[in-house]
Amino acid sequence: MVKLRYVCKKCGITIDGHNQFLHDSMCDECFFETYFPEEIELFETNPKRLSKLCEQQEEANTCFYKFLKSDKLNQRRFSNIVKEVTKKIDCTTCGNCCKKLAPDLSNEDIKRISSYLSMSTEEFIQKYLKKNTEDRFQSKDTPCIFLQQNRCEIYKVRPEECKNYPYLYKDINKRCIQFFANAEICPIVFNVLENTKLIFMDEIFSFDDECH
Length: 212
Fold this sequence. Notes:
Blueprint lengths: L5 E2 L6 E2 L1 H6 L5 H8 L11 H10 L1 H12 L5 H14 L7 H5 L6 H10 L4 H8 E3 L5 E3 L7 E2 L2 E2 L7 H5 L11 H8 L3 H13 L1 H11 L1
Antiparallel strand pairs: 1-2, 3-4, 5-6
Helix pairs in contact: 4-12, 5-11, 7-8, 10-11
């Protein structure tokens, strides 16, 4: 007997019969994103205010930190929050990560960017990079020399760290410290944090009561 194979009509991954017939031919993530989007709001988009606001929210953030470490966060819903917030914030109106952070560059990054700039790797390293305390190559200057009017001049070949920032599509349960640090720099992360605390408020408070 031939087993039928179904694929999500939005993202193309393999799905089972349940999703095919009951979830409108979509995987769980696409189905819930389409029919049950998280209602989010923007609390603050001015990067200059984020650090102070995070400081004011220290007690609530500490409680949420413990909740994250307990591995009780619904990752599907969190992913939807990330997508909804990201839709509402244009990174080119900010550029704060490029102004505040100096990414590490791998050998592959260096080869790719130097080639794009028609430079030898040695020339590129000498002109733009330095070694950090972990003996890894890092951008020499902040703000980044390639940031012009909040746009990256080497966007197509930018370092992998820049491409992956702010790391919201990775398991934040294992990256809690970085997640909270990024909330002080990136408006997307800050608003993801605030919306997640609001949406999961009951579970967070219930967990905090159990801890006490």
